User: What shape does this take?
Amino acid sequence: MTTAPKSPKKPKPSDKSKAPKNPRPKPTREQEIEEQRYLNEMWKLLSDLKDEAIVPAWKAAIFLGISEKKLSRLRHSQRGPDYIQVIAKDGTKARNQ
Assistant: This one.
């Protein structure tokens, strides 16, 4: 009785050879401070708005602390804030909000 030769097992990659999940470099302290200043200014602007205010998607995303893409996904699944399309007074152009 003859048996077929076993093929050699492929070596498993070591943990060191795996690519990092987040290839972006860590921001410097100055970049973090600048981002916090920007967000602080945005919060000041947004905190003065009335509850019924209509804001662009990028401002809504900052207010909610999520990305615009995530906001779009939430709206698509009808779990996010309402999408409102505002028509200009002349009736020709529409601004998406």
